[in-house]
Write a structure and sequence with these properties.
about 190 residues, alpha/beta, Dihydrofolate Reductase, subunit A, 8-stranded mixed sheet, two-stranded antiparallel ribbon, about 20% helix
Length: about 190
């Protein structure tokens, strides 16, 4: 059975974006980049990875899930309607249609839990939840692994890692922790 991994950058105070949705305070350069890419290859948008020479094959995921707001971040000018062309892309939205050029992206208003449960039954590599916090809150019980790129910044407010929905406390087992000189810590957890 495939597993769902919530792999995402997060601030020290638990936000995946600032109050206005900004995430530019997360470190995009430093010794953590190569180490994290080796572990989570294929998690950069296709055009970006190709432009900087990052290999896209051999990664742990073949499917990426995101909410509309996460999807929309990558296409402010509508020139990147299919950000992860090398992966199966599913965007959860009840109010938006896919823009022109997004034919290889699935837009769905279906229940995210039902979709994830069906995906887990399929053959293939693991599934990557890349955002956002609201979708992560809905899928909290379905997430099998957390891979948190903890950045040495504080936002003070913004989009919480697991949105604002109330859910039962859950214990996680640490799988690995890697600290980099940049100050970024890759912390990986699995459900016990």
């Amino acid at each position: 059975m495939r597993s769902l991994t919530y792999y995402i950058a997060v601030s020290l105070d638990g936000y995946i974006a600032g109050p206005d949705g900004q995430f530019d305070a997360f470190l995009a350069e430093g010794d953590h980049m190569a180490g994290i890419w080796e572990r989570y290859r294929g998690t950069a948008p296709t055009q970006l990875a190709e432009a900087v020479g990052l290999p896209l094959d051999g990664g742990p995921f073949d499917t990426v899930l995101m909410g509309w707001n996460t999807y929309a971040v990558g296409m402010p000018d509508q020139h990147r309607p299919s950000p992860y062309q090398h992966l199966r892309q599913i965007v959860f939205t009840r109010t938006h249609e896919g823009p022109p050029g997004s034919e290889d992206v699935t837009f769905t208003g279906s229940d995210p839990v039902a979709v994830v449960r069906a995906l887990k039954e399929e053959d293939g590599k693991d599934i990557w939840l890349c955002g956002g916090g609201t979708l992560a809150a809905v899928l909290a019980e379905e997430i099998d692994r957390l891979a948190l790129k903890i950045n040495p910044v504080q936002f003070g407010a913004g989009i919480p890692l697991f949105g604002t929905r109330a859910y039962a406390p859950a214990a996680w087992r640490r799988v690995d922790t890697t600290a980099f000189d940049s100050g970024v810590v890759l912390a990986e957890y699995r459900r016990p």
